[in-house]
Amino acid sequence: MFVVSELCNVVRVEAHRLKRSSIYDALRQALNNKFVNKVLLNCGLFIKVLDFLPESASTDFHILPGDGAVHKKVYFRAIVFRPFLNEVLEGRVRSLSPEGVKISLEFFDDIMVQGMRMQHPSRWDPTKGGCWIWDYGADDGDSHELCLEVGDRVRFRIVDEKFTDCSPVGPLVESTQQQRNLPSSYALEAAMNEPGLGVLSWWSST
Question: Which residues form the RNA polymerase III subunit Rpc25 domain (predicted)?
Fold first, then answer.
């Protein structure tokens, strides 16, 4: 679920921060302030700086005209969230729709299970606010309706990932509706169509 990535970036550190801590503590804080909880294209969701690579010691500090801060190119390792394909994770159902189920890991919400990747046979029931129902045992003629609802703890398998470059390319988006229609910079596709996957209580021993 979490991986270590080697990255490089030019960091700006304000001069007053250098008085309170070592240079690498200041660089670490500046990098965390800049990247934590942000998606790096084709890398993953940035969690925290792990350490600095030896190459950082060979780069110089620069002070730009009109700017009292120091700038330094640093090479570092960071912990990022990027599950590998076929990894099995657990999360909580955030929302339901006829298209499928959206799952949250609390710190990451862009996980989608499409209806065709639910346990078979499953169907969307629009009553009672809408929920997905797995007709367990339908093939054997002894069917039991197992409901999947918002808030349920579920187990799922990652089947695909998608990165989208959301860098500005034109005028700023003004309307709230337009902002809602912007694609997610990092989204995961998952499946719950195998034994052991789906709502945890379905598989708990009694």
Answer: 87-203
